[in-house]
Amino acid sequence: MTDSRLRALLHERSLTRGDFTLASGRRSSFYIDARRTTMSGEGQVLIGALGLAALRARGWTARAVGGLTLGADPVAYAIAHAARNAGVALDAFTVRKTAKTHGTGRRIEGCFEPGDAVVVIEDVITTGQSALEAIAVLREAQARVLGVLAVVDREEGGRAAIEAAGHAVAALVSVSELGV
To answer: What's the CATH fold of domain 2-178?
Structure first.
């Protein structure tokens, strides 16, 4: 089954034990570098299929998926690719950490238009701050945010923070499912 294979792949490729400082500043005895899975060929196929299934299960009919670069990028692309293969119109976008200082000066790149229904993508949710930042940028650009989809929920309060802000959250895998 693909969800058990995704868990195994994340465990094999992305989970490291040790002493780490997370982006939030918190200390942790483990680190999940989801990019080692989300940027792999097998991970792309699994995440694309599972992500599309999660969108359908939630009833989220999005025009596009994406989130804060870099973690969200391969996940959004995998889901958009899986959607295309399934005959579903779904594109991807990237939210830059800061607006470009040249060219169009956009903060949202790719396939996004004001008014689009979108799902915000995360590779790993810890505090929820990256997703909330992406949501703020997208709402300012007049997006209709349907919810947040993460590959991994670290179960450290991020889901609750996002839900407290009024946004539904779905995760493909929880950290407890990885045996942490």
So the answer is: Rossmann fold (3.40.50)
Give me the phi and psi of 128, to 5 degrees please. 90, -5
- Spell out where 46-179 has E strands: 64-68, 91-95, 108-110, 117-125, 144-153, 169-174
pLDDT tens, residue by residue, 22-80 = 888 889 999 999 999 999 999 999 999 999 999 999 999 999 999 999 999 999 999 99
Contact 164, 132 (CB under 8 A): no
Tell me the whole-structure pTM to 2 decimals: 0.96
Ordered by start, the domain boundaries in the chain are: 2-178
Region 157-169: mean pLDDT is 98
- Kindly provide the b/e burial profile for residues 120-157, where b requires at least 16 CB atoms within 10 angstroms of the residue's own CB: bbbbbbbbbebbbebbebbeebebebbbbbbbbbbbbe
- CA 68, CA 90: separation in Å to the nearest integer? 18
